[in-house]
Amino acid sequence: MRLSDRDPRISPDELIENLVPPPRFNSVSFDTYIPNPDEPSQAAAVEAGRVFAARVSVRRKKWSLFGSREDEAGKLGLYLDGGFGVGKTHLLASLWHAVPGPKAYGTFVELTNMVGVLTFPEAVRRLSGHKLLAIDEFELDDPGDTMLVTRLIKELIAAGVHVAATSNTLPDKLGEGRFAAADFLREIQSMSSKFDVVRVDGPDYRHRGLPDAPPPMAASELEAKAAARQGSTIDDFDDLCKALARIHPSKYGRLLDGVSAVHLRDVKPAPDQNVGLRLVAFGDRLYDRDIPVAVSGQPLSELFTDEMLRGGYRKKYLRAVSRLVALSR
After folding, report:
1. Is the pTM of this model over 0.85?
2. Theoretical Cys-Cys bridge with 138: which of 86, 92, 167, 178, CB 3.0 to 4.6 Å?
3. Is 98 exposed, middle or buried, given 0-12, 13-18 or 19+ CB atoms closer than 10 A?
Protein backbone atom coordinates (compact mmCIF):
# COMPACT_ATOMS: atom_id res chain seq x y z
CA MET A 1 0.00 0.00 0.00
CA ARG A 2 0.98 3.61 -0.54
CA LEU A 3 -0.26 6.24 1.90
CA SER A 4 0.11 8.81 -0.85
CA ASP A 5 -2.63 7.02 -2.87
CA ARG A 6 -5.20 7.27 -0.09
CA ASP A 7 -8.02 9.83 0.16
CA PRO A 8 -9.38 9.57 3.73
CA ARG A 9 -12.82 10.99 4.57
CA ILE A 10 -14.30 11.89 7.96
CA SER A 11 -17.64 13.48 8.90
CA PRO A 12 -18.20 16.22 11.51
CA ASP A 13 -19.92 13.69 13.80
CA GLU A 14 -16.90 11.40 13.54
CA LEU A 15 -14.59 14.29 14.44
CA ILE A 16 -16.36 14.63 17.80
CA GLU A 17 -16.68 10.86 18.34
CA ASN A 18 -12.97 10.45 17.68
CA LEU A 19 -11.98 12.85 20.45
CA VAL A 20 -10.70 10.03 22.63
CA PRO A 21 -7.21 9.05 23.85
CA PRO A 22 -4.99 7.47 21.20
CA PRO A 23 -5.04 3.65 20.95
CA ARG A 24 -1.70 3.25 22.77
CA PHE A 25 -3.41 4.74 25.86
CA ASN A 26 -6.65 2.73 25.63
CA SER A 27 -6.05 0.82 28.86
CA VAL A 28 -3.89 3.13 30.95
CA SER A 29 -4.85 4.22 34.44
CA PHE A 30 -3.33 6.01 37.39
CA ASP A 31 -2.41 2.56 38.70
CA THR A 32 -0.38 1.72 35.57
CA TYR A 33 1.67 4.92 35.74
CA ILE A 34 5.00 3.97 37.34
CA PRO A 35 6.53 7.06 39.00
CA ASN A 36 10.28 7.46 38.78
CA PRO A 37 11.45 7.02 42.41
CA ASP A 38 14.06 9.73 41.84
CA GLU A 39 11.36 12.24 40.87
CA PRO A 40 8.84 12.73 43.72
CA SER A 41 6.80 15.18 41.64
CA GLN A 42 5.61 12.24 39.52
CA ALA A 43 3.89 10.48 42.43
CA ALA A 44 2.44 13.84 43.49
CA ALA A 45 1.08 14.34 39.98
CA VAL A 46 -0.70 10.95 40.14
CA GLU A 47 -2.41 11.99 43.35
CA ALA A 48 -3.37 15.38 41.90
CA GLY A 49 -4.89 13.59 38.90
CA ARG A 50 -6.94 11.31 41.13
CA VAL A 51 -8.26 14.28 43.11
CA PHE A 52 -9.19 16.18 39.94
CA ALA A 53 -10.92 13.10 38.47
CA ALA A 54 -13.06 12.82 41.59
CA ARG A 55 -13.95 16.50 41.23
CA VAL A 56 -14.94 16.12 37.58
CA SER A 57 -17.13 13.12 38.37
CA VAL A 58 -19.54 15.41 40.22
CA ARG A 59 -21.53 17.41 37.67
CA ARG A 60 -20.99 21.14 38.14
CA LYS A 61 -23.27 24.09 37.55
CA LYS A 62 -22.21 26.88 35.23
CA TRP A 63 -19.67 29.28 36.68
CA SER A 64 -18.96 32.89 35.86
CA LEU A 65 -15.39 33.57 34.78
CA PHE A 66 -15.52 36.96 36.43
CA GLY A 67 -17.72 36.32 39.46
CA SER A 68 -16.41 36.51 43.01
CA ARG A 69 -17.61 33.09 44.11
CA GLU A 70 -14.92 30.38 44.05
CA ASP A 71 -15.64 26.79 43.17
CA GLU A 72 -15.97 25.38 46.67
CA ALA A 73 -15.07 21.87 45.51
CA GLY A 74 -11.88 23.00 43.78
CA LYS A 75 -10.76 24.52 40.52
CA LEU A 76 -12.20 23.67 37.12
CA GLY A 77 -8.82 23.36 35.41
CA LEU A 78 -5.70 21.24 35.81
CA TYR A 79 -2.42 21.94 34.00
CA LEU A 80 0.34 19.29 33.95
CA ASP A 81 3.62 21.08 33.33
CA GLY A 82 6.82 19.29 32.41
CA GLY A 83 9.39 18.25 29.83
CA PHE A 84 9.36 15.56 27.16
CA GLY A 85 8.64 11.94 28.02
CA VAL A 86 7.73 12.24 31.73
CA GLY A 87 4.32 10.58 31.30
CA LYS A 88 2.02 13.60 31.12
CA THR A 89 -0.04 12.05 28.31
CA HIS A 90 -0.36 8.84 30.35
CA LEU A 91 -1.67 10.88 33.27
CA LEU A 92 -4.07 12.89 31.10
CA ALA A 93 -5.46 9.74 29.47
CA SER A 94 -5.79 8.14 32.92
CA LEU A 95 -7.81 11.14 34.05
CA TRP A 96 -10.07 10.85 30.99
CA HIS A 97 -10.66 7.14 31.65
CA ALA A 98 -11.40 7.80 35.33
CA VAL A 99 -14.41 10.09 34.79
CA PRO A 100 -17.87 9.45 33.32
CA GLY A 101 -18.94 10.95 30.02
CA PRO A 102 -19.72 12.88 28.05
CA LYS A 103 -16.06 13.81 27.72
CA ALA A 104 -13.54 14.65 24.99
CA TYR A 105 -9.79 14.19 24.56
CA GLY A 106 -7.64 15.71 21.86
CA THR A 107 -4.28 17.22 21.17
CA PHE A 108 -4.03 20.98 20.75
CA VAL A 109 -3.53 20.46 17.00
CA GLU A 110 -6.55 18.13 16.75
CA LEU A 111 -8.73 20.73 18.46
CA THR A 112 -7.62 23.55 16.17
CA ASN A 113 -8.24 21.30 13.16
CA MET A 114 -11.67 20.34 14.50
CA VAL A 115 -12.67 23.99 14.98
CA GLY A 116 -11.46 24.70 11.45
CA VAL A 117 -13.80 22.04 10.07
CA LEU A 118 -16.82 22.61 12.33
CA THR A 119 -16.57 26.41 12.88
CA PHE A 120 -16.06 27.88 16.35
CA PRO A 121 -19.75 28.23 17.39
CA GLU A 122 -20.49 24.65 16.35
CA ALA A 123 -17.48 23.30 18.24
CA VAL A 124 -18.60 25.15 21.39
CA ARG A 125 -22.15 23.85 20.98
CA ARG A 126 -21.02 20.25 20.63
CA LEU A 127 -18.58 20.33 23.57
CA SER A 128 -20.37 22.55 26.09
CA GLY A 129 -22.42 19.67 27.52
CA HIS A 130 -19.32 17.63 28.35
CA LYS A 131 -17.96 17.03 31.83
CA LEU A 132 -14.33 17.14 30.72
CA LEU A 133 -12.17 18.40 27.88
CA ALA A 134 -8.63 17.01 28.00
CA ILE A 135 -6.08 18.88 25.85
CA ASP A 136 -2.74 17.21 25.25
CA GLU A 137 0.30 19.22 24.14
CA PHE A 138 -1.08 22.73 24.58
CA GLU A 139 1.09 24.85 22.31
CA LEU A 140 2.17 28.45 22.72
CA ASP A 141 4.17 28.94 19.54
CA ASP A 142 1.37 29.97 17.16
CA PRO A 143 -0.45 33.11 18.39
CA GLY A 144 -3.52 32.55 16.22
CA ASP A 145 -4.06 28.95 17.25
CA THR A 146 -3.30 29.75 20.89
CA MET A 147 -5.95 32.49 20.89
CA LEU A 148 -8.45 30.16 19.24
CA VAL A 149 -8.05 27.37 21.81
CA THR A 150 -7.95 29.89 24.66
CA ARG A 151 -11.33 31.24 23.49
CA LEU A 152 -12.64 27.69 23.33
CA ILE A 153 -11.49 26.97 26.89
CA LYS A 154 -13.08 30.20 28.10
CA GLU A 155 -16.45 29.34 26.56
CA LEU A 156 -16.40 25.79 27.87
CA ILE A 157 -15.36 26.68 31.42
CA ALA A 158 -18.18 29.25 31.46
CA ALA A 159 -20.51 26.37 30.56
CA GLY A 160 -19.23 24.32 33.51
CA VAL A 161 -16.86 22.03 31.60
CA HIS A 162 -13.71 20.94 33.44
CA VAL A 163 -10.51 21.31 31.42
CA ALA A 164 -7.23 19.44 31.88
CA ALA A 165 -4.19 20.28 29.77
CA THR A 166 -0.57 19.31 29.29
CA SER A 167 2.20 20.95 27.31
CA ASN A 168 5.64 19.94 26.20
CA THR A 169 8.43 22.27 27.30
CA LEU A 170 12.04 22.40 26.32
CA PRO A 171 14.64 20.27 28.07
CA ASP A 172 16.84 22.21 30.46
CA LYS A 173 19.70 22.91 28.04
CA LEU A 174 21.68 25.99 27.09
CA GLY A 175 20.07 28.02 29.82
CA GLU A 176 16.54 27.58 28.50
CA GLY A 177 13.71 27.41 31.02
CA ARG A 178 12.24 23.97 31.45
CA PHE A 179 8.73 24.76 32.58
CA ALA A 180 6.09 26.85 30.80
CA ALA A 181 3.45 27.33 33.50
CA ALA A 182 3.90 31.11 33.53
CA ASP A 183 3.47 31.25 29.75
CA PHE A 184 0.37 29.05 29.88
CA LEU A 185 -1.25 31.08 32.66
CA ARG A 186 -0.46 34.32 30.85
CA GLU A 187 -2.12 33.07 27.67
CA ILE A 188 -5.33 31.96 29.37
CA GLN A 189 -5.40 35.26 31.32
CA SER A 190 -8.83 35.58 32.95
CA MET A 191 -9.02 31.81 33.47
CA SER A 192 -5.66 31.43 35.19
CA SER A 193 -7.22 31.43 38.64
CA LYS A 194 -9.34 28.46 37.58
CA PHE A 195 -6.30 26.21 37.01
CA ASP A 196 -4.17 24.21 39.40
CA VAL A 197 -0.62 23.80 38.06
CA VAL A 198 1.13 20.49 38.75
CA ARG A 199 4.78 20.01 37.81
CA VAL A 200 6.02 16.68 36.50
CA ASP A 201 9.82 16.42 36.58
CA GLY A 202 12.06 13.77 35.08
CA PRO A 203 14.08 12.63 32.05
CA ASP A 204 12.49 11.55 28.77
CA TYR A 205 11.55 7.89 29.40
CA ARG A 206 11.64 7.19 25.65
CA HIS A 207 15.42 7.59 25.73
CA ARG A 208 16.11 6.27 29.22
CA GLY A 209 18.79 3.63 28.69
CA LEU A 210 17.77 3.01 25.09
CA PRO A 211 20.02 3.09 22.03
CA ASP A 212 20.03 5.85 19.42
CA ALA A 213 17.82 5.62 16.34
CA PRO A 214 18.83 2.82 14.00
CA PRO A 215 20.66 3.94 10.86
CA PRO A 216 18.64 4.28 7.63
CA MET A 217 18.26 1.09 5.59
CA ALA A 218 19.44 0.43 2.08
CA ALA A 219 16.61 0.80 -0.43
CA SER A 220 16.49 -2.95 -1.15
CA GLU A 221 16.37 -3.80 2.56
CA LEU A 222 13.51 -1.35 3.10
CA GLU A 223 11.53 -2.87 0.21
CA ALA A 224 12.03 -6.39 1.58
CA LYS A 225 11.01 -5.34 5.09
CA ALA A 226 7.81 -3.71 3.81
CA ALA A 227 6.94 -6.75 1.68
CA ALA A 228 7.37 -9.11 4.62
CA ARG A 229 4.78 -7.45 6.86
CA GLN A 230 1.05 -7.51 6.19
CA GLY A 231 -0.53 -4.08 6.40
CA SER A 232 2.70 -2.24 5.62
CA THR A 233 2.88 0.88 3.50
CA ILE A 234 5.82 2.15 1.49
CA ASP A 235 6.11 5.62 -0.01
CA ASP A 236 8.68 7.94 -1.46
CA PHE A 237 9.24 10.63 1.15
CA ASP A 238 8.52 13.40 -1.37
CA ASP A 239 5.24 11.74 -2.41
CA LEU A 240 4.13 11.48 1.21
CA CYS A 241 4.89 15.18 1.78
CA LYS A 242 2.75 16.07 -1.26
CA ALA A 243 -0.09 13.87 0.03
CA LEU A 244 0.02 15.47 3.47
CA ALA A 245 -0.31 18.88 1.78
CA ARG A 246 -3.60 17.94 0.08
CA ILE A 247 -5.10 16.07 3.06
CA HIS A 248 -6.51 18.09 5.97
CA PRO A 249 -4.56 17.30 9.18
CA SER A 250 -7.81 16.25 10.90
CA LYS A 251 -7.76 13.23 8.55
CA TYR A 252 -4.19 12.07 9.24
CA GLY A 253 -5.44 9.53 11.76
CA ARG A 254 -7.93 8.10 9.28
CA LEU A 255 -5.10 7.97 6.72
CA LEU A 256 -3.42 5.36 8.94
CA ASP A 257 -6.42 3.05 9.39
CA GLY A 258 -5.36 -0.56 8.91
CA VAL A 259 -1.67 0.29 8.67
CA SER A 260 0.74 -1.94 10.62
CA ALA A 261 4.05 -0.28 9.67
CA VAL A 262 5.21 2.72 7.62
CA HIS A 263 8.24 2.62 5.33
CA LEU A 264 9.64 5.78 3.73
CA ARG A 265 12.15 5.87 0.89
CA ASP A 266 14.78 8.59 0.51
CA VAL A 267 13.99 10.58 3.67
CA LYS A 268 15.55 14.04 3.70
CA PRO A 269 15.20 17.20 5.84
CA ALA A 270 11.88 19.00 5.46
CA PRO A 271 12.31 21.78 2.87
CA ASP A 272 10.27 24.39 4.75
CA GLN A 273 8.16 25.07 7.85
CA ASN A 274 4.85 24.09 6.20
CA VAL A 275 6.15 20.64 5.34
CA GLY A 276 7.83 20.38 8.74
CA LEU A 277 4.62 21.13 10.66
CA ARG A 278 2.64 18.62 8.59
CA LEU A 279 5.26 15.99 9.40
CA VAL A 280 4.92 16.84 13.10
CA ALA A 281 1.15 16.26 12.97
CA PHE A 282 1.62 13.06 10.96
CA GLY A 283 4.28 11.84 13.39
CA ASP A 284 1.91 12.44 16.31
CA ARG A 285 -0.73 10.23 14.70
CA LEU A 286 1.88 7.51 14.09
CA TYR A 287 2.91 7.70 17.74
CA ASP A 288 -0.71 7.64 18.92
CA ARG A 289 -1.17 4.34 17.12
CA ASP A 290 2.27 2.93 17.98
CA ILE A 291 3.02 2.29 14.29
CA PRO A 292 6.69 1.45 13.66
CA VAL A 293 8.62 3.45 11.06
CA ALA A 294 11.55 2.40 8.87
CA VAL A 295 13.38 4.64 6.43
CA SER A 296 16.06 4.87 3.80
CA GLY A 297 17.93 8.04 2.99
CA GLN A 298 18.76 10.22 5.98
CA PRO A 299 17.99 9.32 9.62
CA LEU A 300 14.79 10.57 11.24
CA SER A 301 16.87 12.54 13.74
CA GLU A 302 17.81 14.81 10.81
CA LEU A 303 14.26 15.38 9.60
CA PHE A 304 14.35 19.04 10.66
CA THR A 305 17.14 21.44 9.79
CA ASP A 306 19.27 23.27 12.35
CA GLU A 307 17.52 26.47 11.32
CA MET A 308 14.13 24.94 12.12
CA LEU A 309 15.37 23.70 15.48
CA ARG A 310 16.46 27.24 16.35
CA GLY A 311 13.12 28.76 15.36
CA GLY A 312 9.74 29.35 16.94
CA TYR A 313 8.50 25.80 16.39
CA ARG A 314 11.52 24.22 18.11
CA LYS A 315 9.43 22.42 20.73
CA LYS A 316 7.22 20.78 18.13
CA TYR A 317 10.18 19.54 16.13
CA LEU A 318 12.00 18.18 19.18
CA ARG A 319 8.87 16.34 20.28
CA ALA A 320 8.45 14.87 16.80
CA VAL A 321 12.07 13.68 16.72
CA SER A 322 11.69 12.12 20.18
CA ARG A 323 8.57 10.22 19.07
CA LEU A 324 9.75 9.18 15.61
CA VAL A 325 13.06 7.93 16.92
CA ALA A 326 11.18 5.84 19.49
CA LEU A 327 8.98 4.38 16.70
CA SER A 328 12.00 3.63 14.52
CA ARG A 329 13.51 1.37 17.21
Report:
1. no
2. 167
3. middle
